[in-house]
Structures are given as C-alpha cells and as structure tokens.
Amino acid sequence: MRIPLRLAATVALAPLALHMAGAAAQERSVQLDQISVEGSGVPQPGPGLGNGAATSGGGGGPSGVVGYTAKASPTATKTNTPLIETPQSVTVVTREQLNDRNVQDLNQALAYAPGTSTDVFGFDPRFDAFYIRGFSATYDGVFRDGLRQSAVGLAVPRIEPYGTEAVTILRGPASGLYGLGSPGGIVDVTTKRPVFARFGELWFQAGNYDRFQGNFDFGGPVEGSDGTMAYRLTGVVRQSDTFLPGATDDRFNIAPAFTWKPSADTTFTLLTEFQNSKLPGTSAFYNFPGFRVSRLYQGDGAFNAFTQQQYRIGYAFEHRFTPDLIVRQNFRYYGVNGDFPYVQIDSVTGLTAQRSTGLFIENLQSVALDNQIEGHIQTGPIAHTLLGGLDYLHYDWDRVGGFGTAPDLDLTTLNYGRQFIPRPVLTLAARQSQDQVGLYLQEQAKWDRFVLTLTGRHDWVSQTTASGVPGALGPSTTQSDTAFTGRVGLNYTLAPGLVPYASYATTFTPQVGADASGRSFRPATGDQIEAGVKYAVPGTNITAAFAGFDIVQTSILRQDPNNLAFTVATGEVRSRGFEGELIANLAPGTNLTLAYTHLNFQFVSQTSLVTGQPIDGNYLSGIPGDTIKVFGTYLFPPSSPLHGLQIGGGIRYASSSFADDENTVRNPTVTLFDALIAYDFAALDPKYAGFRAQVNAFNIFDRNYTNCQAGFCYRGAPATVIGSLIYRW
C-alpha cells in the first residue's frame, strides 16, 4: 500500500506568572462575519494596521484583516510585523476566505496559495499532506499558534479548518526562529479565540456522498466578570461517506477556549480541543504496470476503519510591563491515538485480486513550550525591535503492528465488505522519543526607509529509538545533534507601500540512523537566497508580492554507491523558481486572489530507489513546474436588484510533471474549477438578518484526473457539492 509516508518522517523533533491588576477590560462590539477582527480589546500593533488579534505576537495570528487581506502577521518574525516589512514571502488565508470557500481540510485551505502543492496524493482525507516550494511539510512544517505540531509515522494530527481563525504560509527556511524544519517553509494555523462581545454562528451542511455536517461557534464575555473574562465554544459534527467504496469521513470536534484579561496589559488564553475521526484505511486504487490507475479500490469496508482521537490543551500568556517590554509564554500538550487497519491488492490474476492486510496502532504525546521577551529601544535614528526566546519540544511515540492476508476479491462482483477479514497478529513494535531545546535572538532595526532583520538560533536535539516485538523491544539507540541557523534580511521602502527586499536563511533537519561504518548521519542542511518586492497599494486593501528564490539542501540520505545495503548522507537537491501573488478586497464581500508559481526542483546528487542508479539532474516527481490559481467573489451592492446575492469561482491550473523520479513518464496538465453562490436573506427583509444560504462546488466539471508521484498514481476528488444554511447572531 502506498501512503504519504514517503514524505518520510523527518520526525519533528514553566511556570506561569500572572500579573494581577484591577482595571477591567472593556467589552467591544463585533460584526457577525468578522468576529476575529474586532472585539479583541488589545492595543493595536501600529498606525494603519487596523484591529489586532488576541496577542501581538508569538502565535496570536494576523491583524489588520479586511476581507481576504491582512496587514500584519507574527509568523515570519514572532513579532506583529507588517507583511511588507518581513524579509520572506508570506501569505495569509483569512477567516472570510475560509468561509467563502467552505474549506474542509488544511489542504483545501492552502489550495489557492502560491508555492504550495496540495494535490500530490489525490483524494486522501486521512492526512494533511502537502509540499511547499517542492519540499514536504507534512511532518515538520505544520505549526499551531506558533508551536510546532509534532507528527510521527501515522500519528499525524489533523487540522479542523472550522476551528481556525487564519492560516499563514511562510515560504522558505524558518529554522532561525522555529528550529528543525522543512526548507520549503511552514504553515502556522491560528486557533479561534474568545472575544469580548456576544456572538454566535450555526452551519447546517449537506452534500453528495451523503455528507451531513453541523458547525457551531459561539461565545462572549462571562457574566459577572466585569469584562475580564470571555469564552468561546467551537465544534463540528460530521457523518459522511466518500467516493471510495465503504469509506467514511466522519468527525466529531469540540474546542472550548477561555480568556482572562485582568488588565489591558495582561492576557491569558486557554485553548483546548478534542477530536474523534473515522477515516478510510487507504485511499489508493490498484495500479497496473505503465502508470495506469484502475478503478479498483484497494480498501475493503470489512477492514478499513482508520479511527483516530486527538486532544490538546494549552495556553497563550502575554504581559506588557511597558509598551516597550513584553513577555509571552505559549504552551501546549498534544495527544494523538489511532488504529490504522488496511487492505491492499498485491496482484491481479484473471478475474481475481490477491490481497494482504496490515494493522498499526500508534500513540503520540508531545509537549511544546515557547518563552519570549520582546523589547523596543531607540538609538539615535534607529528603532530596534529585539526578541529573545527559549523553546522546548518533547514527544513520545510508540507503535505496534503486523501483517496478514485477506480473502481474494472477486472482480466480477466486487464483493467489498462481504467477506470476513481477520485481524493481523501484532508482531512488530517501535518506540521513539525526542527532545529539542532552542535558544534564539532576533533584531529588527528600522532606520529611515530601511528595515534590517537579523535572526540567529542554536538547537540541541536528542532522539532515542528502539524496535523489536511487542513487549520485547531491543536496546535503545540515542542520537544527538546540534545546529546553528539564522536569517538576514533587508527591506527598503522605495515608495509608499512599495518595498523591495532580499534575504538569506538556513535550515537543518536531523536524520536518524548510521552509515556502513556505524557513524550517525549528520543533519541535512539547507539555505535559501530570496529576493522580491511587496506592494500594499496606499488607501486600499490591495496587496501584491513577487519573489524569486534559490534553495539548496545538502547531506540528505542516498544509497551508498559502495555498499548498496546502506545509505550515506551525501545527497543534494535544489529548488529554484519565482512566485507572484495578488490579494484584494475591493468592497465588502468582493475579493480576489491570484497566485502564480514557477518551480524547478531537481536532484543534484541522488540515487534512484527503483534502479539504484544516479538520477542527478532529474526533476522531483508529482510536483508541477507551473501553477496558476485564481479565486474571486462578487457581492452585488445595495443598489442592485440582485442585492444580497454573492457569486464566486476559482480556477486551479497545474502544468505537467514527471510521474516518477526516474523521469520516464509525465503526468498530464490539470485544470480544475470551483464555484460559489450565496444569498443573504436580510436583503429580503431585515427580520431575516443573519440568515445566509451558500452552495460550494469543487471540481464542478467532474474532471477525472490522476497524479503519479514516485511511480505510484493517485486519483483526484470527483465533483463535490456542499450546500449550507448559516445563521449568525
């Protein structure tokens, strides 16, 4: 069975002092569809940036949000820096865009952002598996509220998009602030947080494949707290089949949150979540030789229920001693438990398919802590924003598993689910733990039209691994690595809102194992040169950006040419290209996003896993060289006879790519179309205020498409339609 584990687990590796004060935070008003933008009761990040998020940095999320546009984000700097002053390429997917597109998973949230490849593995509801600038980000590129989301093996936490306020994509190396990670970039998910105003929202959804879902989100100030406490409760309940025979996509998610704000200077927010999912054990279809994808689903409903529970509890604390001295502490405990049964077709003989089974049971617990201190000083004409931090990440992961056989499948009747499939005997086990400590410093110096960003970080990573059989693991092996990473960037305001920039950044990723001589693999290291220009059109909510980049990653694993049974850390890859992006809010409910990416990702020094021969100069398979993504909405104005109606649509174009890393066969180009139509019933009568009907359609022309990566081919999602009835108050 092929699953996105080729993305290969780069296995991502306090006291709380509350300052008491008597002044109560004041309640503020919100708009029903922009509850994140208003009502935070937080001092604003700076002139012209609009309303702030829950905290000014360190996971607080973007600010200055209007429609699809945002003015500032803490993701690139851990301070609430205007996007045009960050020395790397950043995209913010706002709550309004998530609502309009009614995204159902993280991949859909990223689908219209530049630099991202989200359809590499076709339709697969099990994992958030995607690439940024050609590099996998599944295991070491997903963050939540500024803290790394650990993922190992099949224990990969899933993001519920309805519980998120925004999704921010930082492209390029981020190790200078976040430690080990993907050279392509990171995705930081901002959780919905309480606001000091009453609000509520209910969604009722129905779609094809018997999809039924209910969403709820409500909260406000706590009665009797004198405006110092607020709560929020967000949740999703879904029961759904899929186009995979006998496969479900069921989910229950609930996320309570609580904020205590005893003064204008102190904020403590508790963030929790519990999620239970029932998913297919496999999303693959049988492949015939020659990269031909059949309609023969590999799974079987009799042994196909991948059940996963995940839970988290954490907090975000911020205190301002003065406007120029701020401390923050962000903490989270995460747990993921899952049973992963699957059936796969090994071969086809005549009208019968021969099958085998597998079963993995995995548990992952992780703790993440980030302490920050931010200071602002002035030395002559230079304004300094200084940031220092110490963070810690620990996880424990264990797995038991086994393999077995399944009865043959009759291809004349396709008797899925009608035969008993025995549960495999658990014969293998593994355990792994990892600790990472990082110390980082950053200087943002602003002088006249220049902004200089200097970031440096040192990491200490230790990983212990053991394997064997259940109840009898072999001896543990421990590997330790240290690395220094950094970034230097320069922005220059050429004209109001027009800012060219250039930056250099480095990254590293520990690698578990040893070569033929028994020496531990040194970490994979990478660096990037990026240059571009950002433009925030003065007096409007229109932003544009263009960036060119060159990323090299070295010391990655490849087959040892002198001993084919071992690997050596001498591989190298290179990602070069450029991206262009336009995001505009032209009027309430009228927005546009436009993204273009050209990517050239090649193996500089690598060995084929299929032939054992060098594939130097070949292109990475499954990743298109050119993508064009456009999505827009239009809300008819009050003067129009169609007042209350909103229409929208999107186009996703992906050019041809190679189907295998040996570059023998190409994937075809693919163009997909999405659509939106919605109506606000308040346009009929004010007494219907808050009621909205919305229909979203994905791949509306039902394009039958596949994508092959590393020699295995995956089917894309067929046409999907979801209707929603929404009530906000």
Automatic annotation (TrEMBL):
Residues 83-186 form the TonB-dependent receptor plug domain. It is found in: Cell outer membrane. GO terms for cellular component: cell outer membrane. It comes from the Bacteria. It is a multi-pass membrane protein. Residues 262-700 form the TonB-dependent receptor-like beta-barrel domain. Coiled coil: none annotated. Transmembrane segments: none annotated. Residues 37-60 are annotated as: Disordered. Keywords: Cell outer membrane, Ion transport, Iron, Iron transport, Membrane, Receptor, Signal, TonB box, Transmembrane, Transmembrane beta strand, Transport. InterPro entries: Beta-barrel_TonB (IPR000531), Beta-barrel_TonB_sf (IPR036942), Plug_dom (IPR012910), Plug_dom_sf (IPR037066), TonB-dep_rcpt-like (IPR039426), TonB_sidphr_rcpt (IPR010105). Residues 47-60 have a biased composition (Gly residues). The keyword Transport applies. One of its GO terms (biological process) is siderophore transport. Gene3D superfamilies: TonB-dependent receptor, beta-barrel domain, TonB-dependent receptor, plug domain. GO terms for molecular function: siderophore uptake transmembrane transporter activity; signaling receptor activity. It holds the Pfam family Plug. Residues 1-25 form the signal peptide. Belongs to the TonB-dependent receptor family. PANTHER family: FERRICHROME IRON RECEPTOR-RELATED (PTHR32552), FERRICHROME OUTER MEMBRANE TRANSPORTER_PHAGE RECEPTOR (PTHR32552:SF68). This is TonB-dependent siderophore receptor. It comes from Methylobacterium durans.
